[in-house]
Every structure is written in structure tokens, then in C-alpha cells.
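Hey, weird one. I pasted the FAM129C isoform 1 sequence into the form twice and got a warning about non-standard characters only the second time. First submission, copied straight from the form history:
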Amino acid sequence: MGPDRKEVPLSRGTQAVVVGRGRGAPGDGSSMGGRPSSPLDKQQRQHLRGQVDTLLRNFLPCYRGQLAASVLRQISRELGPQEPAGSQLLRSKKLPRVREHRGPLTQLRGHPPRWQPIFCVLRGDGRLEWFSHKEEYENGGQCLGSTALTGYTLLTSQREYLRLLDALCPESLGDHTQEEPDSLLEVPVNFPLFLQHPFRRHLCFSAATREAQHAWRLALQGGIRLQGTVLQRSQAPAARAFLDAVRLYRQHQGHFGDDDVTLGSDAEVLTAVLMREQLPALRAQTLPGLRGAGRTRAWAWTELLDAVHADVLAGASAGLCAFQPEKDELLASLEKTIRPDVDQLLRQQARVAGRLRTDIRGPLESCLRREVDPQLPRVVQTLLRTVEASLEAVRTLLAQGMDRLSHRLRQSPSGTRLRREVYSFGEMPWDLALMQTCYREAERSRGRLGQLAAPFGFLGMQSLVFGAQDLAQQLMADAVATFLQLADQCLTTALNCDQAAQRLERVRGRVLKKFESDSGLAQRRFIRGWGLCIFLPFVLSQLEPSCKKELPEFEGDVLAMGSQALTTEGIYEDVIRGCLLQRIDQELKKTLGANDVSCTLDGCLEVPWEQEGAAPNLNLVLSFLAGRQAFTDFLCLPAKSSANWILAASPLSCSCFRSEFHRDSPVFLVQLAEGLSHSMETISSHSVWSFQPTPR
């Protein structure tokens, strides 16, 4: 017998199937294997497809326009003056990732739900999979379930999770008389890991020990951040255009103010946008008809949401995939049409902007003085404390790592411990336990900053914290790459251990100076970028009634330019953005005491992880007893290098290191070479640095 069903309205005349007890716990949500059949029937799915089609029909024109504007900004940035104080550190070419983490857990799943043992794997791209047994994973079997971690929140308190479940259905609070204790988590769970999502099934896991819970917490939090900030980390014109288009689309729907809806891939973002639009009607029309009470009803609600989310995500993905060829063709065409006329377009843009600035100056200045100026100093100072503390923690860890290398070189110039130290140093940006010190600093001001920003409609604190954490990780990766590159240039086999250590200490000083320079630049970019995110939507909403009506008189001038890269609304926003940036820069000068804190407009956002013309791979000359030439060819190293760090044979067996590192991770030192593959098992794993001993 199937579960009990009841027909209730879904939205706008459609019907939703409400599933009663018996369909299973929210932990069963997955993309493959073992997933319950959808509680939505064919008619309801057709309705959702119609909603997705309507969203795409309204969104894609915004996206096309922002693609043109983004290409214009990129070309003007390429041709314009560069920042006088550019980055000093080399750019790491390693893409952000999380260390693969795997191990046994128990999961609440099944029909009826119960705690069952599983083997869980967090992939390097942040995707979570779970298998029935470890052997199933090792033999390449099909997983029981998998999920992208985008949008999830991790809870490690059972009491907090139960409060969250109760809040989902507040009208039935306290009515738990019909509930079964085992299925509703009334039995205490010692080391829980609850993954909660606003539109998806909850995933309920439990670890065997506190240490295992802590390790999984760090790994899952890293995966959530990695998958959430994929668009924010990108500097590609299409990614920036997409985020701007989402903001404009939502403004046209009357939603001003940034929030966390833009976390995730493009399809996930559009899915979240539509789910938020539909949620009030869905909740009002389906929640009263859900069977059960209290937490049983809450679980049924998450199951229904999961089914709706899955159908919307599939439709959004299909729509964006269908748009991809048009987007590629449009970007190529825009490049050809905009680049030859970029100077003329920018002059025309400046003329219209000057006239617009004159027309809206009064209302704009009044709004800024009345609403923004009183709060701006506190917002800037709190943003500064957030990023400053995080980057200071990065500097401390970096200095300690470089000191450990010098110390180990003096102690053991050709030993396994030195090799491990080098490997650990290269892994520092991806060591979640180590970097947690920096990441916690980014979290400390969340409450205070949230209180300051909330009156301006800013609800994107998770995105802001993720941005600070990504910045800390990026600067650490850049500093590590720079240290290794400079060390490669100054070390030779003619040096004894003390001499080599002294040179490393000089490199340490240079890297710290470069880090301090880049850290200051990054702080200013962070404050300017997030200051705009907090204040710009609010100011636009305040000026909407009075200033937007002035825009039609400029339409003729803009249309006469004959370029889709320029729109009246875009120039209007640029004018307001420029005035806000002036205010933020003035406050930065007061706060930092700097003579010049100017950055390019596009420099407000984070620097990309991978850029054209980034630093080359490390020229580490590695000498193996066997296969040296093959390895040198693999690294594309020159025949002769200024550095000769010789790797000699170690008495350790290969299995010593293979048992410690994952299959898809570098086995040891070679991971430090920028841009290398993450699968290096073909390289000998029993080599260490070797310098001449210091004469006694």
C-alpha cells in the first residue's frame, strides 16, 4: 500500500499531493538510488514547468542586456589605466577545492525511518555521496544518494534542529502526541550532523565520536562554501552579468536588498529565486492539508518542497543549457562590435551620466545625508574589523609555516619529516582545520554587522562571511605560491643547510611584505564591494518614486548610441554607484588614514583565482633515481634551472605515503607545483629534499 494522499491546492488552481506518514525521513533525498517517487503528479509538474518558462522568459532579456554591459566594462578596464598599487603576490593557479573526506556515519533513512549505517564521501568539488558499505564505494558501486551542498546549513545540536523543525509548522507546536519517538529524533543522538535547506529534504547524519563529528563538520562547511560561491569567485563577464541580471530582475519584481539567493550555480540561483516567489502561496495552500502533527508535518513539508525544488531545478537547468549556444554567440558578437567603438561609447556614456547626475543630485544627496551617512562609519569599521582580523590570522599562520620550514631544514635536511613539512606547507590553504582560525574571525562580526545592515534590506550575511573566508584562502594560496617561487630562485645545491635556511628567512621577509601590501588592497576592495551591496539597493529603492520618472527623457540619447551595452537604467545606476563609492572612499580614508584608497570600480569584487598571464608553474628541479627525465618533461621544466632542489631516495616504502593521501590528491611535494594535476600516483612517492650537511 502506498502512503496516504490528500489533494490540496498547490498554486493558482493546481493540486498538490500531500504525503502522510510512511514515505520516509528527509534524509532520503538524493539524485540517484533509493529516492522515493515524487509526490507531484503530471499536472503539477506541468504547472511548475510553466512557472519556470515564465521566469526564463522574463529573466533572459535582463541577462542579454547585462552580458553586453559586462563586455563593455571588461574592454574599458583592459584599455583603461591600471591601478598604481597592483598585487605583489603571485597568483595561485590552483582552483579552490576541499579535501576529499570519507568515513562511516549513520543516517536517518528508510520506510519507516531509522538510523542505518552508511559510508559517506565528500568529493573534492563539494558534492556529498553516501553508500551502503565502504566496499560498495571502493568497488565503484552506485551510491544510495548524493547531493550538491549548495544552500545547506549545518547544525550539530539536536535541540537546535528540533526547534527548527517545530518552527516549520508553528501552528501545531506542542502537538506531538501522535508521533513516534524513534522516527522523530526524540531519542538522543550523541554526535549529530543535520544538514538543513530551506527548499530541500533535510539530511540527518550521526558520527560515532566527537572527533569524527568535528572532522565532518569542517569538511561539510568547506563543501557548502565551495559550492555556494562559484559565481562570486568568477570574474568571467558571463558570471558577473548573470549576478547583475538576477539583481535587476528582482528589482523589477519589487525586491530591493541583497540576500543569499545568489549562492550556487546559475541554475541553482534561478531555482532559489522562483522558490522564494512561490513559497508564500505554496505554504498557505498546502501546509494546512498536510497529514500528521508537529514534526511529522514538518518532515512532510520538506518532502513536498524537495519535490518542487527538484522539478524547478531541472527546468531551470534545461532552459539555461538551451540558452548557452545563443549566449556564446552573443558574447563573440559583442566583442566584435563593442571593441572598435569603445572610446565613443564611453564618451557618450559620460555625457548622459553627467546630465543624469545633475538631474538627480538633489534627491540623491538628500537620501545619502539622511539615510546613509549616519550609519556608514559603523558599517565601514565593522567590515574592516571582519576582514582585517581574518587576514591577520592568515599572516600569522603563513609566518609560522615559513618558520617551520626553515627550522626543519636546519634540523633534518634530507628526511621524511622535512618532506612532510613541505607537503603541509603547500596544503595550508586547503587545510580546513588549520584555516579554521581565519574562518572563525570572519564569523565574529556576523551578528553586529547583520544588525547594522538589516535596516537597509541587506540579508546576505552568509554570502558576506563566505566572501571574507574565500579571500583569506585566496591570499594564503597566493602567498604560499610566491614563497615557493622565490625559494626556487634562490636555493642551489651548493648551499649548506644553514645557508639555505638563511636564504629562506630572507624570502620569508619579502613574502610577508608582499602579503601586507596585497592584504591592504584586498581589505579596501572588500569594504568597497560589500559596502555597495549593503547600500546600493537601498538607495535605489528610496529614489525609485522620484528619480526613475526622469529616465524616459534620456531614452532618446541612449538609443541614438545604437549599442545594447548602454541603457538608461544602467547609466542611472552607475551614477548612484559612483556617488556611493565616493562616500565609502572618504570614510575609508578616515578609518585607514591612507592618502589614496581608490580602486577601479570593477576592483570592488574579489580577484579571480585563475587569470590569464598568471604566475608560471614552480620550476622545482626534482631528481629521482628513476624516471627523472619523464618527471621533468611532465612538469614542462627547463633543462637547466637556477634552483636545484634535489630529491634523493628515502628508505621509506611507497605504501607509507599512499596510505595517508587520497587517490585524487598529490602524494607529496609535487603538489606545490602550481597547476599540477591532483592525481600523481605515477610519480615516485619515496623522495625527500637533500642539501649538503652543514660543516661542523
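That's the output from the first submission. The warning seems to come from a hidden character in my clipboard, not from the data itself. The first strand starts at residue 5 and ends at 9.
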